[in-house]
Amino acid sequence: MDQGITPERYRVIPRTLIFVLHRSRVLLLRRAKHKAVGPGLYNGVGGHIEPGEDVLSAAYRELREETGLTDVTLHLCGTAMVDVRPVGVLLFVFRGELPEDQTPALRPTTEGELTWIPIERLGQHALVPDLYVLLPRVLEWRLSEPVFHALITPQPDGQVRVRFGG
Q: Which of 10, 17, 24, 34 has its CA 20 to 30 A from that of 100?
């Protein structure tokens, strides 16, 4: 079936990006020093959507693999297109909350160090550049609201420009 896929057209790699909240804290991953993108910086958890896998199943798999957490209900709260060419990255952004009565145990991961960071102290941590704009939108999002859509454009100086649609 011809889908109109040609070399001149923009292509994307689908990925999940997940933020879990618990008692006014957000779970972030300090990326391992050997990582090519953002080594030593904090980011949400997540990763590639594998062939034959739907977006939500990929998010739950990545959450389980990277954190060991299984008792979290995830909600799609946004999408973000990372405009790197010729192949971009399409992020499906999820938010979940761990039940208040649970005490989460964090396990080591090869991806980096997991940390529960108090929301009011996020500014004291070195985040991947787009999180300074994207994470407040995730934290403000409510289940009754539509998902947000963002375009993330890396800049030559290593920073990013984030623009929200609509």
A: 17
Q: What is the CA radius of gyration of the chain?
A: 16
Paired tokens of 54: 């739907």
Contact between residue 88 and residue 11 where contact means Cβ atoms under 8 Å apart: yes
For 87-138, write each residue's pLDDT tens digit. 889 999 999 999 888 877 787 777 788 999 999 999 999 999 999 999 999 9
Q: Render pLDDT for 34-86 as a digit per residue (tens, 0 to 9).
A: 666 667 899 999 999 999 999 999 999 999 999 989 889 999 999 999 998 88
DSSP assignment letter at 120? G
Sequence-distant (6+) residues with CB within 8 A of 161 are 152, 153, 155
